[in-house]
Amino acid sequence: MASGNVPEDVVREILLMLPVKSLLRSKSVCKSWYTLITKSSFISTHFNCNTSLKRSHCILVKRILPEHVSPTESVLSFLSDEISSDDHVPPTEIIIPHFNHFLQMVGPCNGIVCLTDHRDIILCNPSIRDLKVLPAPSFNYPNGLLSTTLGVGFGFDPHSSGYKVIRIAELYSDESGGYWFHSVKVEIYDLNTKIWREIDAVVPCIWPFPCSELLFNGHFHWWANYEDDDGESILSFHISTEVFQQIRLPCAFPEATDRAFLVLNESIALFVFNTSEQTSFDIWLMIEYGVAESWTKYFTIGPLVQEVRPVVFWKHELLMEKANGQLVSCDLNSERLKEFQVYGAQESLRALVYNESLVSIKLGSFSMLHAVVSPDIQSTTNSKGIRFGLEV
Hints:
Elements: H1 8-16, H2 20-26, H3 31-37, H4 40-53, E1 57-64, E2 74-79, E3 93-95, E4 104-109, E5 112-116, E6 121-125, E7 130-133, E8 146-157, E9 162-175, E10 178-190, E11 195-199, E12 205-206, E13 213-216, E14 219-225, E15 232-238, E16 244-247, E17 259-264, E18 267-273, E19 281-286, E20 295-301, E21 308-314, E22 317-322, E23 326-331, E24 337-343, E25 350-355, E26 379-381, E27 386-388
Parallel strand pairs: 3-27
Antiparallel strand pairs: 1-2, 1-25, 2-3, 4-5, 5-6, 6-7, 8-9, 9-10, 10-11, 12-14, 13-14, 14-15, 15-16, 17-18, 18-19, 19-20, 21-22, 22-23, 23-24, 26-27
InterPro entries: F-box-assoc_dom_typ1, F-box-assoc_interact_dom, F-box-like_dom_sf, F-box_dom, SCF_F-box_component
Domain F-box: 1-46
Protein name: F-box domain-containing protein
């Protein structure tokens, strides 16, 4: 597999240093390069190198374009260190065709994210423009009950070397034009078997507001409301064992206040807004995972000069959304705000710290140890950005 006089192991080491975009182009150089780049071992090593060396890290932003730009069109945008707050050139945008109003974006897991509008669920790897629509669950619910998606989770199970999508669904009846809540069900889509299945679990209703879902430490988390005296808590789901756990909030947590949770310093960080204007908030850290007694008040941000909503931590800054849908960042030391030329419909911004990968969804070999890349990744471009090719 040598290229000219260059030994094949040297070629491999050079290619491992390239970003995904360059590797996709390099597959066309020659057959030996294509074979190397599409090997599962290369894909896994490339992703692990990027992760350990923190190469190709960026922010993946999901937003709904304002109506004056495009009627309810959802786009994904990449923000990197090269894009400053003074740039007036918009970041690279990937337009999601057919689907509108994706309210949730969860992950990432090995470069793959899960999006849902509480009806359709899709998985995509925006690095390689790879997208797949999951089949709808086909369960026969008793007594003619209907279902709606309250929230989804997504993660990798190292024991089965496969990925799972968790759907928390609310069952209800629609009688005489009225809505009647019945129960909450948990359903799992296994990417290895490609089928939905139900699991026997009693879980509370979850609240799908912004920053209320989180993949962390091999668990997926939702903000939940328990009907007993426990009230609000974090609902945790172990991706491998499929066991739910309740994580209690700090004792000093006030009721009836806006909240969010993100990851900070490799811990779950809980945001508690101090005022209805959302210009000041406390940050709590759960020092020991799953132990409610380890919640520690970390610091307070604000009062800031304008209303904001936290979106994601990025290095030493907190990215937030202004009331008008604009993305801004706040330096955690100086509390100085910087504005980005990125806008979305109000409360439509979601963001994740993202590491690009070559993992493909379309061919079904989805494990990091068995992943392969489609030889004909198709995407078209237009004046607005790059469009996904759809696979259902």
